[in-house]
Design brief:
The protein has 348 residues and is an alpha+beta fold. It folds into two domains: 131 residues, Immunoglobulins (Immunoglobulin-like); 135 residues, Immunoglobulins (Immunoglobulin-like, Sandwich). Helices cover 14% and strands 29% of the residues. It has four helices and 19 strands. A hairpin with a 7-residue loop joins strand 3 and strand 4. The chain is elongated, with a radius of gyration of 34 Å. The two termini are 53 Å apart.
Length: 348
């Protein structure tokens, strides 16, 4: 058989790159603000684990958690994760899952898990780490949203609680659509009515005078139709930040709808909301769920389909080439025309 033409070699060479290689597992995960989430990662080979890397490539430094030589290395860790991450369990069985506590909206991002086991590679440590990607987790942190309905003239309680029982020095209740936006401002042990939007003057107060237990719920009295809107609760605690500045993460968002008396009975509740509390919005991103998330559907089936397609295409091309080489094309003999050709009409 004669050698393949250059164009055919080019085609086969290109097809060889169409067969995909197995890629690290990708998981999508959603969590609500303030929750603790588990970023799952497991090693199939039960060898001695010498290095575990959890990273966020978009951050600098990128390390969420770094474990090597039998201990964690907080010096390499991004400061935003300090005292908020830990292993889920003993890693000797290959489970290097990470617990991320009290998640913030800024924790949304792509997390990568890498593991180095003793004897897996003789090259320098850094090159081994970069080749050991096991899993990528795309985390989305969403705000807790409560829908609340009330009748005109009612007193309503806007619930908000702090999970960490630290010393509370600032409490902010705001309506971002108003100017000034403050519904209620508490700082250094007292309220600041001069910063408050005039429409809430003498109509709001903390549900508890002692907020050391973390309950910073707000009572809004004699509600008006103009009180309908989105309320945000923010808290700043001493020791959570070296600088005394506003915490941009709202703990809770409440959407309040005030009805005229009798209107609610005619129109029903707004999107399932209930007076004095409401309920949190459901729904998760792309099928992901808390405490593990959901594997991206169909990516393995796609790989298999592409591999089969490429194999069939290569086999077809090679088969056609071999057939042509063994059975060279020969033009058919030109049939005689006119009277007297075999099978032609008899002459009269």
């Amino acid at each position: 058989m004669s050698p393949l033409s250059p164009s055919l070699w080019t085609l086969l060479w290109t097809l060889s790159f169409c067969v995909p290689v197995s890629s690290p597992e990708v998981v999508r995960l959603t969590a609500e603000l303030g929750d603790d989430v588990t970023l799952k990662c497991n090693v199939t080979n039960k060898g001695n684990i010498v290095v575990v890397e959890w990273t966020r490539p978009d951050l600098d430094p990128e390390y969420v958690f770094l474990y090597r030589d039998g201990r964690s290395d907080p010096d390499e860790q991004n400061p935003s994760f300090k005292d908020r991450v830990k292993f889920k369990t003993d890693i000797s069985d290959g489970d290097v899952s990470l617990i991320l506590e009290n998640v913030k909206t800024t924790d949304s991002g792509s997390y990568q898990c890498r593991v180095v086991q003793e004897g897996t590679n003789s090259r320098k440590e850094k090159s081994i780490l970069k080749n050991g990607l096991i899993r990528t987790i795309n985390l989305k942190v969403v705000q807790k949203v409560v829908r609340l309905t009330a009748e005109l003239g009612d007193d309503v309680t806007l619930k908000c609680n702090v999970t960490n029982k630290g010393n509370i020095i600032v409490v902010e209740w705001t309506r971002p659509d108003l100017h000034p936006e403050y519904v209620f401002l508490y700082r250094d042990g007292r309220s600041y009515p001069d910063k408050q939007n005039p429409s809430f003057k003498e109509r709001v107060k903390l549900e508890k005078t002692d907020i050391r237990d973390g309950d910073v719920s707000l009572i809004l009295e004699n509600v008006k139709t103009t009180d309908s809107g989105t309320y945000e609760c923010r808290v700043f605690q001493r020791g959570t930040n070296s600088k005394k500045k506003r915490n941009t993460d709202s703990i809770r968002t409440i959407k309040l709808k005030v009805y005229q008396k009798g209107e609610k009975e005619e129109g029903g509740h707004e999107e399932g909301g209930h007076e004095e509390g409401g309920h949190e919005e459901g729904g998760h991103e792309e099928g992901g769920h808390e405490e593990g998330g959901h594997e991206e559907g169909g990516h393995r089936a796609l790989h298999l389909g592409l591999m089969l397609s490429a194999a069939v295409l290569v086999s077809t091309v090679v088969g056609v080439v071999m057939f042509r080489k063994r059975s060279p094309y020969r033009p058919a003999a030109k049939e005689p025309s006119g009277p007297g050709r075999p099978g032609g009409p008899e002459q009269v």
